């Protein structure tokens, strides 16, 4: 038997920094005893992808790039030296047989973060603003986020469109999509890597899978974006409620759905949280004029769901619908009229029989206003904040936080960052009562100039789900958008460097 000393800690730390996870196992799949202990360190690289913001010539887009201050990285003993964060144009992939643009880098990318704790803004106008392929490393990586906010004042796609730029992945679920006559829904696929990714898109309506025309094997070239009009992928009749499933057979992509309604405005539909027996959809505005719930059960079993509204004073059963039956492989939807009755809230879906949970994905289509002055937004099911989450591009007025503790009480810390043009950060600690939604005007930095970021940290207690409502009314239209908070996974566990990493080989 010989003794070989391996620098496994370096290998593990590098893997964790790049992928956000690290695992070291022996050939038989077990974890060596000398690697059981772990230390928590900041990630060293983060990737984000932003879709092309709009096809409207009158659109105006603001990008806000932000990394939380080093001291707020949970569990990290020290923050790495600030390194680099950049966003590059991801040009539109050319149709088959055509050559890509000769000089796609001529398109201007927005400014990026130069130091943690201070957001950086940039603006773009018109239909030529590109999709973006971004990465941050070193001290700018833990918690790096980019918010894309677009105002389209007129036209069929008018509205306030907000989206938190997404991390690349291989599996996405989008309930609440549509091929209805008045809707134009596009899936935007963006590839951050050097090789071509291949994506598949599946569509599920109320009767099950839709007939597919060209939804398999969609190539997404390296560092490019491909927008796919959903109505062109099927010969089936128009469907008001659809669930879209995006997967990759090779590579990875960022995916988000752009939904435009000729009669009610437009917004982005982000992916739902991963399928789960329980779903929380946080932050329904108090003045919502209509709310439609869309759910899908991807497994082999039907789901019987109990529908509850988590209000500021407790959890109640809505008069419009107390349950929802979701058949396996079929999209189910229900209108929830007069849901909020003037109070903000969050929707909670739980199994009717707690002993028989069936994983589901879900999203809400929410409207404010009526008739020609109506505006829509989408709220997907949101995973709980494990440690910390951030939403950028908040303004001096019009930002509202919704914090939901569906099970047990919790305590959170809210930090309003410095402004992009100046200001002093403000921190507030909030105690959440179990089974309630706390809605509050977002704290504003002292002496704010520009926009700022909101960071929510869970300090103790049960699960917390959160969202940010941004209102920018225009010409009597209550334009708004809602972004859910997703844990930033700013730190990862790696083997403790103080341990003996000597491996014995035969």
Features:
single chain, mainly beta
Describe what this molecule looks like in 3D:
- The longest helix has 12 residues, at 8-19.
- This protein has 506 residues and is mainly β.
- 51% of the residues are buried.
- It starts with a strand and ends with a strand.
- The model is unreliable at 1-32, 72-82 and 103-107 (pLDDT under 50).
- It has 1 helix and 39 strands.
Please compute the radius of gyration using only Cα atoms.
Answer: 23 Å
The rough form would be described as: globular
Low confidence ranges? 1-32, 72-82, 103-107
Q: Termini, distance in Å?
A: 4 Å
The main pleated sheet reads as: 5 strands, antiparallel
Strand content: over 45%
Helical stretch tally:
1
What portion of residues is helical? under 10%
Give a quick precis of the structure:
The chain has 506 residues and is mainly β.
What's the structural blueprint in terms of helices and strands?
Blueprint: E1 2-5, H1 8-19, E2 38-42, E3 45-50, E4 60-66, E5 82-90, E6 120-125, E7 131-138, E8 145-152, E9 159-164, E10 171-177, E11 183-190, E12 197-205, E13 208-209, E14 218-220, E15 225-229, E16 242-250, E17 254-261, E18 265-269, E19 279-284, E20 288-296, E21 303-310, E22 315-316, E23 323-326, E24 331-335, E25 345-351, E26 361-368, E27 375-380, E28 388-394, E29 399-405, E30 410-416, E31 422-424, E32 426-432, E33 436-441, E34 446-449, E35 452-461, E36 465-471, E37 480-484, E38 491-495, E39 502-505
Antiparallel strand pairs: 1-39, 2-38, 3-7, 4-6, 4-8, 5-7, 8-9, 10-16, 11-15, 11-17, 12-13, 12-14, 12-16, 17-18, 19-25, 20-24, 20-26, 21-22, 21-23, 21-25, 26-27, 28-35, 29-33, 29-36, 30-32, 30-35, 31-34, 36-37
């Amino acid at each position: 038997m010989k003794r070989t000393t391996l620098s496994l800690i370096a290998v593990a730390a590098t893997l964790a920094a790049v992928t956000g996870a690290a695992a070291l196992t022996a050939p038989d799949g077990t974890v060596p005893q000398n690697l059981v202990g772990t230390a928590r360190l900041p990630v060293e690289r983060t990737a984000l992808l932003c879709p092309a913001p709009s096809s409207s010539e009158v659109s105006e887009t603001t990008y806000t790039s932000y990394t939380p201050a080093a001291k707020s990285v949970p569990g990290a003993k020290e923050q790495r030296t600030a390194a680099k964060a950049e966003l590059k144009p991801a040009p539109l992939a050319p149709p088959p047989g055509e050559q890509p643009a000769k000089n796609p880098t001529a398109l201007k990318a927005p400014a990026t973060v130069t130091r943690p704790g201070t957001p950086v803004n940039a603006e773009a106008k018109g239909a030529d603003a590109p999709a973006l392929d971004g990465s941050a490393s070193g001290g700018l990586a833990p918690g790096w986020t980019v918010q894309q906010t677009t105002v389209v004042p007129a036209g069929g796609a008018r509205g306030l469109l907000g989206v938190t730029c997404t991390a690349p992945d291989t599996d996405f679920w989008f309930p609440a999509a549509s091929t209805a006559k008045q809707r134009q829904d596009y899936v935007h696929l963006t590839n951050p890597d050097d090789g071509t990714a291949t994506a598949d898109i599946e569509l599920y309506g109320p009767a099950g899978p839709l007939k597919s025309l060209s939804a398999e094997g969609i190539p997404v070239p390296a560092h490019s974006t491909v927008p796919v009009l959903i109505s062109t992928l099927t010969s089936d009749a128009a469907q008001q409620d659809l669930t879209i499933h995006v997967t990759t057979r090779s590579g990875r992509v960022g995916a988000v759905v752009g939904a435009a309604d000729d009669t009610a405005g437009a917004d982005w539909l982000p992916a739902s949280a991963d399928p789960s027996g329980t779903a929380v959809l946080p932050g329904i505005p108090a003045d919502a004029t209509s709310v439609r719930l869309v759910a899908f059960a991807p497994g082999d079993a039907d789901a019987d769901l109990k529908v509850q509204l988590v209000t500021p004073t407790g959890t109640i059963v809505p008069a419009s619908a107390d349950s929802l039956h979701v058949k396996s492989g079929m999209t189910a939807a229900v209108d929830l009229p007069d849901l909020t009755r003037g109070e903000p809230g969050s929707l909670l879906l739980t199994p009717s029989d707690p002993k028989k949970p069936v994983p589901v994905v879900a999203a809400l289509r929410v409207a404010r206003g009526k008739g020609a002055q109506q505006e829509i937004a989408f709220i997907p099911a949101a995973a709980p904040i494990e440690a910390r989450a951030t939403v950028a591009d908040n303004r001096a007025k019009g930002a509202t936080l919704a914090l939901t503790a569906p099970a047990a009480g919790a305590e959170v810390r809210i930090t309003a960052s410095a402004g992009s043009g100046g200001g002093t950060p403000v921190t507030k600690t909030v105690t959440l009562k179990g089974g309630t939604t706390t809605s509050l005007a977002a704290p504003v930095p002292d002496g704010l100039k520009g926009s700022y970021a909101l960071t929510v940290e869970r300090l103790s207690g049960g699960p917390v789900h959160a969202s940010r409502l941004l209102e920018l009314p225009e010409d009597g239209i209550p334009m708004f958008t809602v972004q859910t908070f997703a844990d930033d996974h700013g730190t990862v566990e790696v083997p403790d460097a103080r341990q003996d990493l000597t491996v014995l080989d035969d």
